[in-house]
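Suppose you are handed a protein chain with no further information: no name, no annotation, nothing but its sequence. What can you learn? This example shows the usual starting point.
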Amino acid sequence: MEKLADLEARVQNLEKIKLKIPSDKQGDVTKDEISAISRARHHVESKKCYSASWKWVPKDYYSKQLDQRSVILGARSPMQLCKALLMENRSVEAKQFDRLNAQFYLVVVQYGAELNTKKLEIEVRALKPLQERLEASKFNFRLASAEDNDRLTGYVHNSVTPFGMIAQATVPIILASAVVKDIKFMFMGGGHVDLKLGMAVDEFVKATGAFVLDVSDSRR
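A reasonable first move is to predict its three-dimensional structure. Written in structure tokens, the prediction is:
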């Protein structure tokens, strides 16, 4: 048993090196976290996202202001920093998966903006042709539970990335149109709380097949 445990430890250490996990973080990264990071990287690489850039951040990253975080990431503006929110339509009745009327969507918005759920409902409803459009009462988007987030994305809070989700095939991605309008390069979660992923916006849209919709408002 000890030999097996030693072998597993060596394999994990090799995986950490392969994933370029910094030496000062290797002791803290768990087996499940290694798996999550690996899924995200594999998906990005499989999509040939040549603009992708991975950045490990300090543990106190989320205690800092947005302008400080942007400096850490090497971003030109805090508006380049984005987050991914798993949203659930609690009024959906479709029994079979339909990406134009799914129960869950992963919505990517800028930290410097706010997700507008009413806009989200209007925009998702409008994905279908007018003659097939459902009643407005069939759309009621709310932030998904932590349990559903973990189950469907495979990532914990502050580490969610649109790449390598466990339920990738049944969770369509929506990118706020403000992102496309405002910036050329974006930063998002990378599969671990301390790992961020940067990517050209146009390459992100192509790789994820994201719907680009007007779902956010500028913070006042």
